[in-house]
Amino acid sequence: MVRQSHALEQLFFMIKTSLILLGLAGSLTLAGAQSLFTVNLDGPQAGTPSLGNGVGTLTLNLDNTVSYEITFSGLTAAANNAHIHGPGAPGVSAGVVKPLTFPLATSGDLSGTTTALSAQQAADMLAGLHYVNIHSSFAPAGEIRGQILLVPEPSTVALAGLGLGTISVLRRRGRVGIV
């Protein structure tokens, strides 16, 4: 019974330590680094039959501006507006957060840097609650849409893997027993 109790204490200590390290890594990421996002746009996400599509990257900069590079093609009609919308989960409509520069064309590139997001808007973006919408006369509410998704920080993923790997090795060696 004492051995099992000691083993459980070791396990809880390692789990707690791993969570603390993950929390610190996450805090450092938010406090001192840019955050990278991807977006994949298509008609079904916008609720349209459009065969148009798009793909791109967005970066939440240290000053809360958003730099973006998005390529799109196959719109039914020329783009007449493009925005970042939020907060809105996939399939949920939301208001305009920031306008994006766009070409008056059925295919093209959007690129630029927005003005700064508010702290709440930045938090919503990090939580996956913003999306890009490209509008046209075919679909004034948006012909193609894509949810903006955070690309996991490699060091955070590596740290989680290291913690789980350590627990696995110790468990195999019999130093951590799980009842």
CATH architecture of the largest domain: Sandwich
Q: What's the β-strand tally?
A: 8
**What is the straight-line distance between the termini?**
10 Å
Name of the top-level CATH class of the largest domain: Mainly Beta
Compile the SSE list and pairings:
Blueprint: H1 2-32, E1 35-42, H2 43-46, E2 53-60, E3 66-73, E4 79-85, E5 96-99, E6 108-113, H3 119-126, E7 131-136, E8 144-150, H4 154-172
Antiparallel strand pairs: 1-2, 1-8, 2-3, 3-6, 4-5, 4-7, 7-8
Descriptive report:
The protein has 179 residues and is of the alpha+beta class. The chain folds into 2 domains: 2-30 and 155-172; 34-152, Immunoglobulin-like, CATH 2.60.40.200. Helices cover 35% and strands 30% of the residues. The chain is built from 4 helices and 8 strands, in the order αβαβββββαββα. An 8-stranded antiparallel beta sheet has the order 5-4-7-8-1-2-3-6. A hairpin with a 5-residue loop joins strand 2 and strand 3. It is globular and about 65 Å long. The termini are close together.
In short:
The chain is α+β, with helices and mostly antiparallel strands. The protein has 4 helices and 8 strands. A hairpin with a 5-residue loop joins β2 and β3.
